[in-house]
Amino acid sequence: MSVRTLPLLFLNLGGEMLYILDQRLRAQNIPGDKARRVLNDIISTMFNRKFMEELFKPQELYSKKALRTIYERLAHASIMKLNQASMDKLYDLMTMAFKYQVLLCPRPKDVLLVTFNHLDTIKGFIRDSPTILQQVDETFRQLIEIYGGLSAGEFQLIRQTLLIFFQDLHIRVSMFLKDKVQNNNGRFVLPVSGPVPWGTELPGLIRMFNNKGEEVTRIEFKHGGNYVRAPKEGSFELYGDRVLKLGTNMYSANRPVETHMSGSSKNVASWAQESIAPNPLAKEELNFLARLMGGMEIKKPSGPEPGFRLNLFTSDEEEEQAALTRPEELSYEVINIQATQDQQRSEELARIMGEFEITEQPSLSTSKGDDLLAMMDEL
C-alpha cells in the first residue's frame, strides 16, 4: 500500500463531485450567482491551505466510510443541501467515474495527468475568483513537487492501492452502460484498441536475444486489436496539453445519469462486512478525521440568502423511491465518534463531534424553481 495515494484519491473524487454538482445546478436552472457561490464555496474549502497540509502528509488510505464523511462535510460547505439518497447517488457516481479512469490509465504515472485534468477543469469554474485560483495553483505545485520525481514502480504501487480501494465497487451507471463500457454486472469493459502507452511499441512483434544481448530472432503475431502510437506525452507542468482525456468533464453535455446496484450478493456481502466487522484502524481513522476536519474551514452562510436543496434525481418521488430501495448495508451512515475517554484529544474531538451533530433544518421548498440537488444532510 502506498502512503502517497490519499491526495490523488481525494482530489480526483472531489473533481468528479464538482462536475456532477455543476451539471445538476445547470439542469435544475439554479440562478447563475447562486450556482457560482456554491462551487466557489466548495472549491475554496476543498483547497484550504491547512486542509491540504494534512492531506499531503504520507499516510495510509482509510475506509470508504471515513472518506465519505469528508465529502459529505465538503458538500455542505455552502448554501446547498443534499438529502441522504442524493448524497448516496453523488458518491456512487464519483467513485465509479474515477475507478473507470484508473482502470484505463495507459501507464501508472498517467493517474497524475488524470488529476491535472480535474484541476484544470476546476480552475475553469473559478476563473473569476483569483484568490481561490491561487489556492488551486498552490496544490498544483505541491503535486508537481511531490509526485514529479516518483519512479514508475512507485506510481504502480499508487495505482495498485487505488484499485484495491475500488475493487468491490460494481455500481451500474447509465452513461457507462449506454456507451457500452460497462456490463450489466457493473464491471467495466477494457478496450483492445487505441493509443499504446507513451514510450512503448505497438504489439505484434516478439524479439529474442542471445546471452550477449544481440537480437537473433523476430516473430510476428496477430494481436487482434487496433493499436496506434501515442502522439506525444502529456504535460506534467502547471500549464500544458495533457493529451490524455481521462479526468475531463464528461457531464459538459447535458446527459441524465442514473445509478443501479449490480445485484451481486458477493458485492453486498463485502460491503456489509466492512460495515459490521470490527475495524482495527478505528482509532487511526478517528485521528485522521479529526486532523482533516480541523483543517477544513466551513463558511457558515451569512446574510438573508436562503439555502436550497439540490436533487440528483429527476423528481422528488424518484429520490424517495431510491432511498427506500437501496440495500441498507450499502447505505452510508454518519460516523459516530465516541471519544469521551480520550484525554489527549478530548478538546479537539469535542469540537469535531459538535460539528458532526445533525440539527433539525427548517423545511425547504421542494418546488421545481427552488429545488437543487438535495445536498448532503448537515453533520
Describe this structure in words.
With 379 residues, the chain is mainly alpha-helical. It has a domain of 239 residues. 47% of the residues lie in helices and 7% in strands. It is built from 13 helices and 8 strands. The chain has a two-stranded parallel ribbon. Strands 2-7 form a two-stranded antiparallel sheet. A hairpin with a 5-residue loop joins strand 4 and strand 5. It is globular and about 75 Å long. The two termini are 30 Å apart.
Query: What's the tally of helices?
Result: 13
Backbone structural class: mainly alpha
User: The biggest beta sheet, please?
Assistant: 2 strands, parallel
Helix content: 40-55%
Strand order of the largest sheet: 1-8
Radius of gyration: 22 Å
Assembly of the depicted chains: single chain
Mean pLDDT rating: 79
